[in-house]
What we know:
By secondary structure, the chain is of the alpha/beta class. It contains three helices and nine strands, in the order βαβαβββαββββ. The strands form two sheets. A six-stranded mixed β-sheet has the order 4-3-2-5-6-7. It has a three-stranded antiparallel β-sheet with strand order 1-9-8. Helix 1 packs across helix 2. It binds inosinic acid and magnesium ion (MG). Inosinic acid is lined by residues 42, 67-68, 74, 97-105, 150-151, 156.
Amino acid sequence: MASIKRVLVDKEAIQTMVKGLAKRISSDYEGKELIIVGVLKGGFVFLADLIREITIPVVVEFMSVSSYGSSTKSSGVVKIIKDLDVDISDKHVLIVEDIIDSGLTLKYLKELLLSRNPLSVKLCCALDKPSRRKVNLEIDYNGIEIPDEFVIGYGLDYNEKFRNLPEVCILDISETNA
Ligand code: IMP
Ligand code: MG
């Protein structure tokens, strides 16, 4: 059985990060038509917090992608499980993701959405593991940098569990056989 090793990012640090990013987004996109694209499933908790701190009108859409099976390592394969329902041409797009690890998922998504003629596509993530990056990727709104640990909670899962934890915690993999 997997268990929690320790809390890495507490509620207060999460809230400060969310407020800071929302403030920048609200000012950068003032007077512009913005579509926020939440990446399911992991991004839904962060997205829900973020949009409630954003003070300009936004449209919220979702995509569902999968880059991981049930293990803790990236397969490098990005599968689109649910695509957007709206046309993003001539709109500004902000992709909101839970965590950037290798960067493969977001690089793929950004290129896919850029091919649909939007005015811009920018990236926002709650957590960043820069030491794990495999591709060069500019993250426009970057939350909290974390070390190379597998984390759970605040939307992030291990085998679909632990998404409901209010804090970002380190998973104790010594007890798992992943
Ligand atoms: P990337 O394509 O390697 O950047 O992986 C991004 C996706 O992998 C994220 O959206 C998460 O769903 C998942 N992921 C990466 N690191 C972790 C982690 O530490 N815990 C849980 N999921 C993770
Ligand atoms: Mg994800």
